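Please, structure for the following, as tokens.
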Amino acid sequence: MQSSWQKTGVGDFKYHVGISSLTQVASREDRVCVLNILGGESSEVTPVSHAYSGGNVVFGTAPGKGGAVLETPIGDIPVFNNVRDGLAAGHRFNCGVVYLPPSAARDGVAELIRVNPELRKIFIITEKIAVHDAREIRAMGQQNGIDIFGANGLGVADSWNQVRVGGALGGDKPGDSLRPGSIAIFSNSGGFSTTIAQYLRMAGWGTTTVISSGKDVYIHYAAPEFAFALANDARSKAAVLYCEPGGYYELDAKFNKPVVACVVGRWKSKLTRAVGHAGAMAGGSDDALAKERWFMEKFGVDGIFTPDNPVFSAKGALVTNIAHIPAALTAVMRANATLPDFAPEGTLALKPWFGSDEGLDLPAELRPAVVQALAPYGEQVALLNTQIGGVVPRQTMKDASGASQMDAKTQVSSLHGTSMLDAATLPLESNVALALLHDAGGENDRKLIAPAVAVHINLHGRPELAAAQASREAGNAPNSVLAAAAAIVGPKRQQAAREALGFMLERFHAAGLGNEFGASLSDSFDIAQIDTKGAPALTADTPDARAQDLLAGVQARGGRSVFLRWLQSLPGHPTEAAVLAAVSATLAWGPLSRKRISLLTAQNFPWWLQLFGTLIGASADAARHAPDGFCGIAQKQMLESASLGEIAFAALLGRTPGENDLFAFQTLVGLLLTNGPGAISAQGAKGAVSADGPEQPDRVQLNKALVGFLTHTGYAHGGNGYEGIAYLIEQFKGSGLDDPGAPAHGVDLKALAAKAVDQYAQYKSRKKSAGSLDIAKLPGVNHPVFKDKPVNLDPREVFIAKLRESRGDHNVFHDFYRALVQQLFDAGVSRNVYCVNVDAVIAALLLKMLWKPLQSGEIGERDLETAAFTIFLYPRMLGCAAEIDDHLNRGRNMDTRTVASLCKFVA
């Protein structure tokens, strides 16, 4: 015996289908009830649907919120605790929309069916409904004669009737995409439902009914039902289907009108599990290739339609790119003697409104012409083009960084995309540029940075030196000594330079100095066009000694700058602040114009240059600062020829470095430039920015943030490599080693390693015999990331070893470590050959520089630890400056706090 719903169903289906035509999918007569109407998605989407449809939502439900309303542009929608309460209040509906969580969707459908005999259609927006629940939903719908759409869909829309039921088809302005026409759309993807409608509209095709079917395992209203309703809709002359792998619905669909089918997802057949929409997996016969074959058979074609190979018939065409749908549809309809619904409205081909080729010499096909944007976007783009530098969105920066990161596989850190291994090959000047300008720069940049930092290193007679020396004589650690000097270099010290820099950047940008600016333009750019009206005080009546020194340093090194050329053309004598601003403007202009850095970063550059110079200077005893020189280097030489690496080396060790010493020092600087935002030192710097408030960047004190970095370093953290140094000193004691860089150093490394391994094996044996599990590791040996291979290698150590080899540079301490790990294995102390890790490399590089002064008695072991610690401070100062600047640009006020609920009380 047949039930009543089977008698009222339509078509030759073996199950209930109540809709006979697409006109019945969404009509102006439909009245809608929305479950979970106040949920995050529904509260945004439902008001748009309601207004677009002329007010088709009669009420919604939200348990516990009965009596509330959802505001819409055309009036409030009442909210009840449940469906029965809404019906009891006199509301009637025939459509239900389900926005409930997956675990509640089945019960929501049951409630709609149980209490409302007038129900005819249900639209399920919910994703990830369990298959078991989907079966029960299907059964309830069939038993009660109700058509169900979804799940995991965006509902339906009718362009002719201007009705939308369910999700966000057409976006916030459905009328912009859903123009009335003759094409129906059935799509597994909700987002592409709108995209396809927009593509069609640009080609002159409007739409009738648009159905987002969803792509769960169960598609309740699927391709066969759609084909039947399409056949009975006089408005629809053709259809577009968007299909993904999985299911046999399309195979069973019988079309008697032209169809363009877009089948995607060939890549899914390579997977062994479903991803995204429920799709076919490897080995299935319902994958993308299978569906392509189905449609080619239906259309009588032997290929895929592309603009270059237009394969189609009067029955339809198959495409695999949604961008080809309009052309395929037009070709198919032309074969059916049918013209588009209206004149084409444009094209969705790439038409950039603004662009930058980053100064690259690109081929013509990769350089699409920039076009004038439509109103009001054109005015906005024009305004945007007046902006100097980049802007990044603010976000919470606790335990986050836009400057540094670490590759979990290689353990190699990077700063602004540059690996620390690459940074290890750069001079100190380039790493200064990398840290703050996001780019290591070129030769001209180094010629400008060196004197701009050097001019601030000699602190003779300055309060910064007095503060540092008082701290040093009080017995403070090197970081505290430097912090005392940094505290003096407050915002007023560089206020004039930052104001001058802001003026220069604004006026040169207005004059058209483009992003192609380089050293070659320094001599050719017309500086006469720079508007000087309202300029801050850039010159004085009398010469400024430090300004003259800096200008002489740049000139002697051959540095070129259009900003300096312009400044020197002005009447009077340039001030120190103006010269520093001009140098900073030259260095920052390229990254600014490419929007690699922000205007804020550029304007702070003079402050950073002074801070870097001050901290290098403060690391040397006051007795080594003189009116005409620093640490044995004449002031003229510092400014005009010495590299920053040479000056910094002299500040630390009291002597000018040889070529190999300089190589070792600069390698260390690059390796230690950053350890990522999680390092204690970086946390101190970021915490200081967070406390000052990056959302009001003028209040953030860069020197205080550097003090935050300095106070968060110590011998346990900052003395990186000191344990390795102490170990190496112990092993080489009495070895007679004179020069650790000499190829013929005279030390039997294999014998030395064997002795060290024997001592360590005896130590381990004694510990185990005593029942102790607290066995100390050899410093610089092994690493938890690089293990479980016959021979373990730390790629950072391998890189440095190859770099040394390419230079013909020798380091007996590094070679000893390599002999040590091999001997550990040969003696059976280790199961495999351990890696020499990067800490051992740092120790080897440091001790090589310090060995001779140590042996000669110039420094003692306490001085050795201090030197090792201070050498660490230099590069980490640059890395933390990058974190400070990044947090300043991206962060929010007080964003490094830990909320009280996550804190623990320890009794």
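Residues 134 and 218 are 7 Å apart (CA to CA). The radius of gyration is 37 Å.
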